[in-house]
Amino acid sequence: MDRKDIRRIAVFTSGGDAPGMNAALRAVVRTAAWNKLHVYGIERGFEGMIDGHFKRMERRDVANIIQRGGTVLRTARSKRFMTPEGRAQAAEHLRSYDIDACIAIGGNGTFTGAKVFSEEHNIPFIGIPGTIDNDLFGTDYTIGFDTAVNTAIDAVDKIRDTADSHNRLFLVEVMGRNSGFIALHTAIGSGASSVLIPEAETNLEDLKNVLKKNKARGKLFSVVIVAEGHPMGGAAGIAERIQDELASMEPKVTVIGHLQRGGAPTALDRLLASRLGHAAVNKLMDGEENVAVGIVNSLITTYSFDDAIHREKKPESALITMASILAI
Amino acid sequence: MDRKDIRRIAVFTSGGDAPGMNAALRAVVRTAAWNKLHVYGIERGFEGMIDGHFKRMERRDVANIIQRGGTVLRTARSKRFMTPEGRAQAAEHLRSYDIDACIAIGGNGTFTGAKVFSEEHNIPFIGIPGTIDNDLFGTDYTIGFDTAVNTAIDAVDKIRDTADSHNRLFLVEVMGRNSGFIALHTAIGSGASSVLIPEAETNLEDLKNVLKKNKARGKLFSVVIVAEGHPMGGAAGIAERIQDELASMEPKVTVIGHLQRGGAPTALDRLLASRLGHAAVNKLMDGEENVAVGIVNSLITTYSFDDAIHREKKPESALITMASILAI
Amino acid sequence: MDRKDIRRIAVFTSGGDAPGMNAALRAVVRTAAWNKLHVYGIERGFEGMIDGHFKRMERRDVANIIQRGGTVLRTARSKRFMTPEGRAQAAEHLRSYDIDACIAIGGNGTFTGAKVFSEEHNIPFIGIPGTIDNDLFGTDYTIGFDTAVNTAIDAVDKIRDTADSHNRLFLVEVMGRNSGFIALHTAIGSGASSVLIPEAETNLEDLKNVLKKNKARGKLFSVVIVAEGHPMGGAAGIAERIQDELASMEPKVTVIGHLQRGGAPTALDRLLASRLGHAAVNKLMDGEENVAVGIVNSLITTYSFDDAIHREKKPESALITMASILAI
Amino acid sequence: MDRKDIRRIAVFTSGGDAPGMNAALRAVVRTAAWNKLHVYGIERGFEGMIDGHFKRMERRDVANIIQRGGTVLRTARSKRFMTPEGRAQAAEHLRSYDIDACIAIGGNGTFTGAKVFSEEHNIPFIGIPGTIDNDLFGTDYTIGFDTAVNTAIDAVDKIRDTADSHNRLFLVEVMGRNSGFIALHTAIGSGASSVLIPEAETNLEDLKNVLKKNKARGKLFSVVIVAEGHPMGGAAGIAERIQDELASMEPKVTVIGHLQRGGAPTALDRLLASRLGHAAVNKLMDGEENVAVGIVNSLITTYSFDDAIHREKKPESALITMASILAI
């Protein structure tokens, strides 16, 4: 791959949407324009690639979107792209638009699709990690994570008002699929009594003891954060297992739900998305391909799709320990 | 009852908490202080009245609480107060503190307790309507309703980001117990496609047709607001009944939940709570008793506990009609 | 004017923008569409009318704007419209598009222009009151007022954090042009120590005494809200007059500024704008003309442009009194 | 210094307040309690140290403060502490309470005071960097910076609504004292047209050309972010220099002001403050002294007070370049 070759690129968002995807798209389009590249936006991810939904994007087309949640290119999960026929059709469209390279904004599934496709059809890809779950190896933060955590904390702050007024126990379930990042950060940020995540063993006896001790010590209410992917069945599963013994605390379950995916991105997500979108174009120009961009120790980096897909990223155990010390 | 008699009053919050209760408490305490009354705050509503949890409250004790959700006096539902023995004990405590009258901040259940108690023990009460549900006859607005609606709309605004990005159908359940006020106002304010409330008949065929027509017309996603008290079983119940036929829209259910009870009160709730708290003391001074204060057509008014408890308040049908015209 | 005649209408926003204008526009377009009227949107108010910037608007053109601040039709102040020549050109454009009636969303200046124009060129107008200042006679609330007050209160809540931490005096200036509505409602809602508005006499000696007494009583910080139109020169003017005597409180001036005009509209502003936009079309269909729609005591009403322009609306004195009692 | 020696510590906040200081305080108190240390909180920083305003703080005393802006210990700037007599008096109080070490939460001025004092009176200090300005060498982020940037961006998002509606130029001044971090991050996050900071040369001709070119290219409004410490006199100074030439854009100045200091801390600030408060106690237990804790490349680190005070931290030039590319 040679720098001179990259003249026309395509960009799309795929998989679950995340706040900041628009900021990343804006950065891709403007950095590309600054480098005299032509950019095409593909609607609805791999679905639009198969259906040929391409549109030319210039600087002004990404004006006034940096602050918007969701993705103006829309997104989808594509079953057809899992078939060789679907991918062949997509490749045809890319060729008909003379696309030299693609930038894919999404998570694990997106990168898996990109890897298979680029190997099959020899079109270079750069990935930008966009998912609220922060579960991608290779980057300290994914786009949307900080916004989701802030939204969850804001919700828990509100729930505390009512928990506090009623002296109650609340089990609050947050998103994150199989990963506990959102739950752990929400728990620390909201001063929760406890946090239950898939990455750490859950001892229900300990949990019950902590809650009882807290009450004995004068703590008037308790909030426990549970990751949706918790193997005991999320917040509802935990509640079922403890409610008899803690009935006097009137345990309530609340699932924060899809609002965690939306909303104006935070400052950090806008900055991260801008940096990663900008870097993705620069890395393409530098001749890199089939890697994702990321941020590690505040610096831009790249990592292979394989690593992103197969290696596991886990919350630091030091943070888990700290959370329990500060919750006392 | 003669004005000179009111020298010492007690105030408490009871039932479900609502944002703005603190602002009402502040207004009660400061208006009372301005009128040289002594004020006692009772903790945890009727429970604290039975247990004698009274504390003297002066002007500075309600500083810096106008912006806080929940209630600093805490609240509870009291089973003991439903027994004559419990109420006798409460009356004893009021007498031992020489309380001439009580101000109760709460909803239907609170007013019912106040009515029974004041008849039994001859202690004058004034009620202040505090409930997010807005289901109290006699007042156009209850304290907390505007905040709850704003919280729900903010959540739906966020859900729209992701609904829009995925071209999906969302069924969003909001609070309100048996009443559809929160649902109707949330639906109008969030531009929802449809709203299902207990006070209006639900025709599922119409609903499905509207959603299909919208899609045919180019509407890319739909949000339907469902009141938690909807007789078909809230949002989950509706989803079950329509999901087969609308499977292509990938219907998702989300329950906004307890965060609707919390948060800093809105401007309107702070103003309303301030006016009602101020009026409650003034009405007591004027010799009124066993009524609740309210706001009708922007003016302070009073209404009997009986009316508040037994008469029904329903959303205006004109608003329901307008909601469906604007949703098209 | 006869109901049958109204087939095609134009709508525009003019003067200062206000949150909720988009919700009003949406309601106009959708109610008109429901009544089979054709709607044209005019860009940049009277400027666009003179320049012929009209565009057909259908139901889907106002999708997804109810939550946006500002106005998608943009707005402007037009000097040319103050000349007979400018207005003649505007009338020509309206005729060339066969417009039967206009709906103008704006404040005092907008209604003045509408009145002069409709008299000169015999085109019926309906006004919708949109201004954050709430200074229009004939309606209890104008579109944007509730949002502006909430924004101001949110800002003061933040300023209190720092005022409280430093034991300081803050003079906070809010918008409102010559009117004190925003200031008064912000002061009540934020629990300010005092409020200075053009509609009430300001006694600086009293102000200084209140602040000193508060300090003596243990109040650790004070926030004074000043209307921008205060005749002593806003917050800066007041500060100059009191700072020597209150130097120990380290008085700081902060001007909240233009952010009060923007942001997603509140629930109340979305509902109000929806109701007024809906009513404006209905009133046109009913044959009314050259009036503005409004809301008085929760009911839709109309009032002449003359009243809106020439009669004065003032904050209730009872609220001013209450504010000072609760501030103690 | 030996671990066994640290039995009683004091903690205080000093200088300008910053959101997250309460979260840091909570982490200090709870980590200390977990380590069986006794903690005293000192009110109003060095002022309270001189006046002997100490209070015992236990776990429950820092409950429910993680989400609050400002500082519950209050803060002050102390002239008396700049004199040897003032410091001697402070040392006396520390000795009378048997304090083995102090933890100081604040910025540059706080660390300077700590350094002088600990040298004079041989009491070990650990500093925690709390300032919205992010201008402290030795740590990537200071507590409060992320919140301030989010508040500023939220304000600019609102100002854009009105700027966009009117096709106007806004010059928005943000805080940061002599540093441009807040301005640069706000500009990137809000998609501003340009940013003017003390650390980069300002070429007014370039600025005017960019704004004119943007307008020619169809950009309908422009927002320029100016750091308060900009040597040309902040936003007002810049406006004065460009307004004649750009009069057609109706340039407006708005100063966001003190609200940037307040508000509930963001997720990141709560996490950062928790980590730094936790680390400060751990470092004390490890025998470190007269250093500040910080975070560099996501890892906890320490640095001498001298470095914090005398070495300069500047925004990365790569970010400044990126900001201008993305603004196009």
Automatic annotation (TrEMBL), chains A, B, C, D:
Metabolic or biological pathway, per its Swiss-Prot or TrEMBL entry: Carbohydrate degradation; glycolysis; D-glyceraldehyde 3-phosphate and glycerone phosphate from D-glucose: step 3/4
Keyword vocabulary terms for this entry: Allosteric enzyme, ATP-binding, Cytoplasm, Glycolysis, Kinase, Magnesium, Metal-binding, Nucleotide-binding, Transferase
Binding site for ATP: G16, R77, S78, G107, N108, G109, T110
DNA-binding keyword on record: no
UniProt feature coiled coil, ranges: none
InterPro entries reported for this sequence: ATP_PFK (IPR022953), ATP_PFK_prok-type (IPR012003), PFKA_ATP_prok (IPR012828), Phosphofructokinase_CS (IPR015912), Phosphofructokinase_dom (IPR000023), PKF_sf (IPR035966)
Binding site for Mg(2+): N108
Activity regulation as described: Allosterically activated by ADP and other diphosphonucleosides, and allosterically inhibited by phosphoenolpyruvate.
PROSITE patterns found in the cross-reference section: PHOSPHOFRUCTOKINASE
GO MF term (any one): 6-phosphofructokinase activity
Entry keyword Metal-binding: yes
Binding site for ADP: R26, A27, V28, V29, R30, R160, R217, K219, L220, F221
EC code(s) of this entry: 2.7.1.11
Subcellular location: Cytoplasm
Residue stretches making up the Phosphofructokinase domain: 8-282
Active site per database record: D133 (proton acceptor)
Reactions catalysed, as given in the entry: beta-D-fructose 6-phosphate + ATP = beta-D-fructose 1,6-bisphosphate + ADP + H(+)
Name of a matching Pfam family: PFK
Record-listed substrate binding positions: T131, I132, D133, R168, M175, G176, R177, E228, K252, H258, L259, Q260, R261
Cofactor dependency: Mg(2+)
Quaternary structure and interacting proteins, as annotated: Homotetramer.
UniProt xrefs under NCBIfam families: PFKA_ATP, PRK03202.1
Entry-linked HAMAP family: Phosphofructokinase_I_B1 (MF_00339)
Job of this protein: Catalyzes the phosphorylation of D-fructose 6-phosphate to fructose 1,6-bisphosphate by ATP, the first committing step of glycolysis.
Family: Belongs to the phosphofructokinase type A (PFKA) family. ATP-dependent PFK group I subfamily. Prokaryotic clade 'B1' sub-subfamily.
Protein name: ATP-dependent 6-phosphofructokinase
Gene: pfkA
